[in-house]
Amino acid sequence: MEICKLTACQTAEMIRKRELGVEEVTKAYLDRVEKLDTSLDSFVTVCNEEAMDSARRVQKRIDSGEAVSKAAGLPIALKDNICTMGVKTTCASRMLGDFNPPYDATVSKKLKAADTVLLGKLNMDEFAMGGSTESSYFKITKNPWDLERVPGGSSGGSAAAVAADFTTFALGSDTGGSIRQPSSFCGVVGLKPTYGAVSRYGLVAFASSLDQIGPITKDVADCALAMNLITGHDCMDSTSADIKYPDYLEFLKNDIKGMKIGIPKEYLGQGLNSEVKEAILNSLKQLEGMGAVCEEVSLPLTEYAIPAYYLISSAEASSNLARYDGVKYGYRAEKYTDLLDMYKQTRDEGFGDEVKRRIILGTYALSSGYYDAYYKKALQVRTLIQNDFNKVFKDYDLIVGPTAPTTAYKIGEKSKDPIQMYLGDIFTVSANIAGLPGISLPCAKDSKNLPIGIQFIGKAFDEGSLIRAAYTFEQNTKLDMEPAGLSTLI
Amino acid sequence: MEITIETIEHVASLARLSLKEDEKIRLTSDLKNIISYVEKLNELDTSNIKPMEHVIPMKNVLREDIVNASYDRNEILKNAHESGEGGFKVPKVVE
Amino acid sequence: MDYEVVIGLEVHAELATRSKIYCSCTTEFGGEPNTHCCPICTGMPGVLPVLNKKVVEYAVKAGLATNCNIASFSKQDRKNYFYPDLPKAFQTSQYDLPLCFGGAIEIDVNGVKKSIGLTRIHIEEDAGKLIHDAWADGTLVDYNRCGVPLIEIVSEPDLRSADEVKAYFEKLKSILEYIEVSDCKMQEGSLRADVNLSVRKRGQREFGTRTEMKNLNSIKAIVRAVEAETKRQIEELEYGGTIIQETRRWDDNKGESYAMRSKEEAHDYRYFPEPDLLPIVVGEEWLSQIKAEIPELPDQRKSRYVEKFELPEYDAAVLTSSKIIADYFEAAAAVNSNVKAISNWIMGDLMRAINEKEIEFSNIPVAPEDLAGLIGLIDKGTITGKAAKKVFDIMFETGKKPMDVVKEEGLEAVNDEAAILLAVKEAISNNPKSVEDYKAGKKQAIGFLVGQIMKATKGKAQPQTVNELLVKELEK
Questions:
Q1: pLDDT, tens digit, for every residue of C201-221?
Q2: Segments making up each domain of chain A, as ranges
Q3: Cα angle vertex C91, ends C88, C93, to 5°?
């Protein structure tokens, strides 16, 4: 038995039954990371000693009967924009290269309280801005299916690490598709929860009204397990929803009979790679075969979601990233003449190109005379897009479509053209705009043996239906999901 | 309005970014392209549409006026590039 | 040329909450630098704000007490600018939907009443402090004040003179003190004003170009700054110059203002709705709860003093101008019904002593009951009015009880008719000229004789007895 090939649920169960020791599991993962991540570059920080220490502590708690969480002993890893007390949190930026937060994000706290073991922090696009993890200041993460290709982004490190069995599961963050798209590229399961379902406290803000933390897992059952650990009301986050959160494991039912699924015609139109389209159409047939009622619907404003998204997210980012000025933490330029120059040099040297591009766009969109034309307009379009979804959700339980228009592309292929890169978010941004939950899971592989993701979008706070549909789909479509690129290394 | 290199310089100055000449040129063309792309939104009539500031309809999220212990000062200062005498140090500020 | 000055005030008051506006750090004044801080108020990556409920309630209270409308829907916005005292590089404030709007307060300058409009009151967070001399090569930043809640009270440009500005500011301060939403300690920066000022030729309709003066943290400074800036602008115009719209910093030591370098760059605050904070909706029920907590305000109290205590308008206005003074007065009035005497003493000797000793009214060493007691001693004839002044000074010096001072100093009034008669007779025989004058009809000559008698009895003779006996003797 290969420990790292087990799912999180399987591992946790074996740990509970004392068939596996926490140290043994942790060691297996750390060894695998050490051996293989030199080729994949998915981790920014690996916590070798701390992980073994906490593994010992957790094992003790399990032995004494104190650890009761269903995830006790699971080695996990976090995207490097989720604050971890005492462990560097860099956002893959030179700006925060040495930042060591004196506090934990709420999700970090919850995962600690659930007796999981932190293996380390995962690579990403700088400040989560990008769709390929190429904009990391530190390294370019490779796709485990093909090392010449990107893992997607911005949670590319998280998706690659899960696909490569470097961790039982990982957390990512999703502002416009940053969990779902890399999950699709790497052939794993990624869920972006409803805005407000997971606390954002301690998630380094990119676009506050869109950001949401979510799990990236090996399968749908692990996704439900992870959701149980991270959702919940948090009084440290004003936008956290104070509602009763269900036990997501209860939705792991192989049954979608009668479930009404809408397929937006806009999601199968222009710009969609033909192999991806074919795979999705085939999946729809499979869903019907499982008893779902699939019908074509329309989300006419789909093409407006990207421009609205880029205006809103960049405007918020320009403000959120203003605090990086070399005073309180982070990088400060070596040479400067005075305070103003210190600010300008620090920010010019500390941020990468994509971040600066967004800051410029966002500052411009908020600046005097342009606010109404750009930012306010985008917020109005946001209202219209949400109305679109509300209409469809009156008659349908779920919306289904592709996660991304293509499969993983070559490193360097799109990084020169911002708009081409932005268009990769076409099927994911709408869910962020409307605050809705979305899950991506593998549905097929293309002719290059690269995974294709299918996306389910649900009603607000109805992650349960997403999990149920995804689980049913997964159980009835057995795919061989062994990343090919990685096997060449072993 | 047309986006020129001066536009970029003004915006960069608001955002406290000291851009190199080649960056300015690149960003001018990037911003031009992005802005002409986002102007697609003008195809939509939004005259009576309320801008959505928050995606979930919540209000009055408030905390009680209770004091908790502050952080140890060393924890607050430890990530600063330059600190001392209990504070963050910055180049001389002229008011 | 005759000019008219047009002034609007932006008053910032720190709210007297225990914890900061968005985190649970203390708002206590002072403390070693950066010891009242946490990741939230120092703007560390990933932290989020949660609004203090008391901040809303205090701001609404201030709005109600200044006749504002209270917004049923209000939101918070980010005001973006870079400055080392602002750790997030934006100040969370309110832009287009403030909590309170459209109020007014009445001022009285030399008996002329005028209503000054309030544009709005909004909530926001205070910034940190820059310490310029702690470190030779640069500036030290202290974030202790960062996140202390503020209300900004913006007036209409309704003020026309330094006197009006003073009256307005004092009235506002008094209201805030009455409703106890701010301690209004100007020396600690919890109350401060920015002055927007322009001049125009009298009769001209449009406003002149205005300047904004910042950093005014005493009433004296506000008045001086208004006077100096008015003069500066008029002189500038008289010599053919123009006024530049700019932010100026008042230097109270030099008595002049100068344009601020750091604010030279064109302002573009790029306000936008704060996505991390949700709307504030003050519904009927909440509003009436807050309303119920509003105590009697200065104007109401003033009317009560006129009606109930039958005090002159002037006395009532002075006494109620500050809550502490009014409370002091009422504590004294509860013990002694001679309210006019209490009022006279407070407005006279008490105020004089406070000014001389430069102490805060809240630190007066004479308890109100003791002032009432002192007045009681005069009323009963135990001491003379003259001796009372001496007793008061000692009480103010030492905090002792009036009767103790009287005994220690031997200041009891002499009311022994025989002794006083002796002094009366002596005065008559020693001052024949005055006696003659009196008999010739110059009744005021009696004053001189009384003075002589009081002198002879070391001020302790009961003036009433002296008068009676003297008149009796003279009429003989």
A1: 999 999 999 999 987 989 999
A2: 3-259+476-487
A3: 145
